[in-house]
Structure formats: C-alpha cells, structure tokens
C-alpha cells in the first residue's frame, strides 16, 4: 500500500494527539515506515539533547534566545511550553515537505493542534486523536509502565478525561485496543484522505480533457 | 479487517457512482464480501426480471403502477428513469439497515446521488466516485468488452467526460487503474469513515465517564 500522489500535489498535514498511555508514539513510528511519502515533522526544542538523540532527527535543539526570536518572527505553526522547556513546529519545516509533495505527520499535544487548526483549513490538515479503549485500560497501561508514582498516574488519568472531552474537535478517533486494528485504522485514514476529491481531481484534468 | 462499530450506532450510507467501464460493479461486490457490517442496497425497478436475477437480491421487481404509487407516497430516497425503466431506492430499505447498525452501500448514478445528497447530511452519507485512469483506458475497456457498437462507445466516452466533471460533488475519488489498489482505497474510505469522531465519540462516553 502506498500513497501514490504525484509530486506536483502539495502534501497534507496529519496531526496526531493522544493522552499519555494511548500508544501514540509506537503507532506513529509504524505508520512512518509504511508510507514512503509521509515524513515525521521534526520540532524545535529548548531542552537539552538526551543520550541517543540526534540533531535534526529527534529535534532541532536551539538556545532559548533563538527560540524566542523564532516566536517573535512568527516562524512557528505551533509552539508550547512543557515543564519549563519549549517545543515548536516551524512553518518552514512543514511547507518545505508539502511543497515537495510529501505528507507530514505531526505528533503534538492538544494545545499545539488547536493552534494548527487556526492556521490550516480542512483541506490541508487532518486531525486524529488516539485513545485507549477506556479509563480502566489506561490505568492498567500507566501502572504497567512502572515509571510513574501513583499520584502522577492519577493526574494523568484526570488529564486524560479532559483531553478526551477535547477530542470532539478532531476529525477522527482511533481506539488503540488491538494494536494491529488501530494501525489499520490509522493507515486507512491516511489512504482515504489521499482519495479526497479536492486532492485527486486537479491531477486528473489532463487525462480526462476537462476543466476542474 | 472489519467494521467493529456497535449495533447501537446508526449505520452510514456509502454512495458509489462511476462512468460505465470504470469497474464499479466488481469493486462493489468485493467490498460487500470484505465488510460483514456492510449491506448492499436493493433497489426497486419496473424492468423485467432477467434470467439468473432474484427478487429481493438483485432488485425488488414491481409494476409501473406500484412504482408510481411509491413515488406519490414519498417512499423513495432517490429514483430515476433509464431507457424507459424506473429504478429507485426506498427510504425504508436504507433506514431498516441503518437502524440495525449496518452501513449500506448504494450503487447508483449521478442523478440518484444528487437526490440523496439533498436528503442526507455529511455525517450520514459518504459519496465516492470511481474512475478509470484516463479516457484512453476507458475507451480500451469499453472496446475490450466487445458488446457496444462504435457509436455507443463514443456516446459513453462523451457521457463520461460530463460525469467526471460532476465528480467534484463527491467526497472521494477512487482511480481504478490497478484493481487491488482501488480496492484498498475503497476499503480505507469505509474504515476511515467508521473512525470519524462524530461516529466514535458517542459510544465512548460511558467508558471515559464524560459527557459528549
């Protein structure tokens, strides 16, 4: 299965958000491997590079001053501050991929998605929310990680309820109960969005000798 | 891959149209076999039953008088007259399936689709147009059938151009160049539409203890 639009078509944005514990990171990694035309958006961040991370692959690592200048210059499609560090998606990053005909996957939180929704219309950006099947399963997964204290888990679950309420603003919901089923759904959304008539028809005008 | 929405969710309508020679009939047959929850809408018609056809499977065969009464009673979601015979989809047919949680596939022409578009909103009906890759391939397929006189083929190709122009009103376009690719795209559209947040969220409210 491949996304076979021609390079002359501008790419789309696929914005993926999820509460912690929904399995978003693994799903996004797999989906990038499946679609050769899909690129993962690399964010800018002010936090320090961790062992194993690579500049330009995991993040673009910049000084707080540079990040502030980029905000002032209107360089970000979205940005947010989390635990004292700033993270942002540069408009240039998105537009360079899109102009080459690549779709771009953005793995960002609800606040970032809200900012993008104001900048990009329905024909340019698709918003996908990934959910665990219910709160019981979410709790099981968070506890199963063994990394969070009980009060952190309670806060994450409390946050998740608020986030799920916000998911009504998203176009699609993928329930990550069975992983392969969730992957099929995410794949299907990307393939289906590539079939939208607004995206397909302009490329067909010549072959059918019509004006669109 | 299956459509695993619960029966408590009302089903959606998938309306499929195509110019003659696009391969719609074969695609629709295959897709019905793939999704256990998807039902093929059986139309009413005034034309005579052909050998091998079955009442209630291929069509509901009715007298012209009965068909006229059904029109007068507002029983049809859409109907059209083609070569002196009438064909129509009864609202009851659609609603009975939908109320049981089944999605319904309607294999109808552009006029019928236009009528349905007025009755069913975007959250209820999805409009899909199937196309051959270009007019050259369409001509090759129509000539390859060996059933149509040259002037019939010319008329079909001329009609196709007009129909393709009308395809801008459809939500999705599936190009039937490679059959398996087209089938994947049609499958993906059905799976993706099942993930629309407006369809998924109501069923989740209980599991996440939220009001939607």
Structure description:
- Chains A, B: It comes from Geoalkalibacter ferrihydriticus DSM 17813.
- The structure is a homodimer of 212-residue chains.
- Chain A is of the alpha/beta class and 212 residues long.
- Chain A has 8 helices and 9 strands.
- Chain A is 43% helix and 20% strand.
- In chain A, strands 2-7-1-8-9 form a 5-stranded parallel sheet, with helices on both faces. Chain A has a 4-stranded mixed sheet with strand order 4-3-6-5.
- In chain A, a hairpin with a 2-residue loop joins strand 5 (76-82) and strand 6 (85-90).
- The two termini of chain A are 28 Å apart.
- Mean pLDDT of chain A is 89; it is low at 1-7.
CATH topological fold name of the domain at 13-41 and 102-205 in chain A: Rossmann fold
- For the record, what is the CATH homologous superfamily label of the domain at 13-41 and 102-205 in chain A? P-loop containing nucleotide triphosphate hydrolases
Kindly provide the radius of gyration of chain A, computed on alpha-carbon positions and rounded to a whole number of angstroms.
18 Å
Beta-strand percentage of chain A? 15-25%
Number of helices of chain A: 8
User: What is the terminal-to-terminal distance of chain A?
Assistant: 28 Å
Averaged pLDDT of chain A? 89
Helix content of chain A: 40-55%
Kindly report the spatial arrangement of strands forming the biggest sheet of chain A: 2-7-1-8-9
- Give the oligomer, counting copies of the same chain as homo and different chains as hetero: homodimer
SSE succession of chain A: EHEEEHEEHEHEHHEHH
Overall 3D shape of chain A: globular
**Unreliably modeled segments of chain A:** 1-7
Which CATH architecture of the domain at 13-41 and 102-205 in chain A? 3-Layer(aba) Sandwich
The CATH class of the domain at 13-41 and 102-205 in chain A, by name, is: Alpha Beta
Largest interface (CB within 8 Å) is between: A-B, 41 and 42 residues
Q: Give the strand tally of chain A.
A: 9
Domain Guanylate kinase-like (chains A, B): 11-191
Protein name (chains A, B): Guanylate kinase
Family (chains A, B): Belongs to the guanylate kinase family.
Binding site for ATP (chains A, B): 18-25
């Amino acid at each position: 299965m491949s996304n076979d639009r021609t390079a002359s078509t501008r790419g789309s944005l696929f914005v993926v958000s999820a509460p912690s514990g929904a399995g978003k990171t693994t799903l996004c990694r797999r989906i990038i491997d499946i679609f050769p035309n899909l690129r993962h958006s690399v964010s800018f961040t002010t936090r320090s590079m961790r062992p194993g991370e690579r500049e330009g692959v995991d993040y673009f690592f910049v000084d707080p001053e540079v990040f502030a200048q980029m905000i002032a210059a209107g360089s970000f499609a979205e940005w947010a501050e989390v635990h004292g560090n700033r993270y942002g998606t540069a408009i240039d990053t998105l537009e360079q991929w899109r102009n080459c005909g690549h779709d771009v996957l953005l793995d960002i939180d609800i606040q970032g998605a809200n900012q993008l929704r104001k900048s990009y219309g329905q024909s340019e950006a698709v918003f996908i929310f990934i959910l665990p099947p219910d709160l019981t399963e979410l709790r099981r997964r968070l506890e199963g990680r063994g990394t969070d204290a009980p009060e952190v888990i309670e806060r994450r679950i409390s946050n998740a309820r608020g986030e799920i309420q916000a998911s009504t603003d998203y176009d699609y919901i993928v329930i990550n109960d069975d992983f392969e089923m969730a992957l099929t759904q995410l794949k299907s959304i990307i393939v289906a969005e590539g079939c939208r008539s607004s995206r397909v028809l302009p490329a067909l005008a010549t072959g059918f000798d019509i004006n669109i």
